[in-house]
Amino acid sequence: xxxxxxxxxxxSGLRLMEALRLRVKDLDFExxxxxxxxxxxxxxxxxxxxxxxxxxxxxxxRKVRLLHEKDHAEGYGSVQLPGALRRKSRNADKQLNWxxxxxxxxxxxxxxxxxxxxxxLDPSLVQKAIxxxxxxxxxxxxxxxxxxxxxxxTHLLERGHDIRTIQELLGHNDIRTTxxxxxxxxxxxxxxxxxxDTLQSSAHYLD
Length: 207
Description:
Layout: H1 2-12, H2 16-20, E1 27-28, E2 33-36, E3 45-48, H3 51-73, H4 83-88, E4 108-109, E5 116-117, H5 123-136, H6 145-158, H7 163-170, H8 175-179, H9 195-206
Antiparallel strand pairs: 1-2, 2-3, 4-5
Helix pairs in contact: 1-3, 1-5, 1-6
């Protein structure tokens, strides 16, 4: 599950907690988009749902449904909801659409009330998995869960996508925050490519 979370971080440009707080209802496979609710700045936004992980996400949701049905059959199946929604709809916390896409393996338990449910996956598990992967891959540079978000933005810029669009996908309030990613582009000291680089590339294809 941790590997799938990492793929979503890179494929959608999410912060770690934004990915872990995704609920079943936030994934729209037909429109190939997902909704980040109450992100940084308490704002909702939509971003792309990568086609490459679409099928694995569908498999994950089937696992979530089976787990939820098991919990429900045992008298549990509750999930934490935003305060206003919980007050408005008593049964929403037990509906499949509101379950976490990446639930914890074990149920939480309130010792005073006996109530049980599931939190989303703990962020430390994803962070530890990334550290292990970095060591095993013998990567010398430091890498964290946020590195995937940086790569998402940098690679979109490298492909020539509009920086305003990238700003919206990342959920930045200020375009200057998004502009920071332009410094990571491999375009020389002035942020541009030499015309000779283009000629060399063309010559390579002509050989």
